[in-house]
Write a structure and sequence with these properties.
The chain is built from one helix and six strands. It is mainly beta. The protein has a five-stranded mixed β-barrel with strand order 1-2-3-6-5.
């Protein structure tokens, strides 16, 4: 009986620590780092913290957003923008090309179909 309880607790811990989240968009996020054909946004919100973890964390979980030739970049009024118009700390909405799994302990790369600049720096 004790072995069954221990086994059950191990499974619960493994499932809780290996979270996967499916996303189709980032509704409101800010650009953290800009690179040549991509940028990073904070996606910490996608991962639920265990009950024992502090709600105040200083470490951000970043997701890389890849920008391709087919990615549409506009402002909130629908005016076309270029990738170079985006700056760190800009508030954006991102629609992904497909539903994507992001996992806490793996590289988190997504491809943007549409980027809408909601508020510039």
């Amino acid at each position: 009986m004790r072995l069954i309880i221990i086994y059950f607790l191990i499974i619960i811990i493994l499932v809780g620590c290996n979270s996967t989240v499916k996303i189709t968009s980032f509704e409101l996020t800010s650009i953290q780092i800009i690179e040549e054909n991509s940028f990073y946004v904070d996606c910490s919100w996608a991962f639920k913290k265990p009950w024992w973890a502090s709600s105040q964390t200083t470490e951000k979980e970043l997701c890389e957003v890849k920008v391709t030739d087919i990615t549409s970049i506009t402002d909130k009024d629908g005016n076309s923008l270029y990738f170079t118009d985006l700056l760190e700390e800009d508030k954006v909405q991102i629609v992904l090309t497909e539903e994507t799994n992001i996992e806490k302990n793996k590289a988190r790369e997504v491809e943007a179909k549409e980027i809408i600049l909601l508020q510039g720096k």
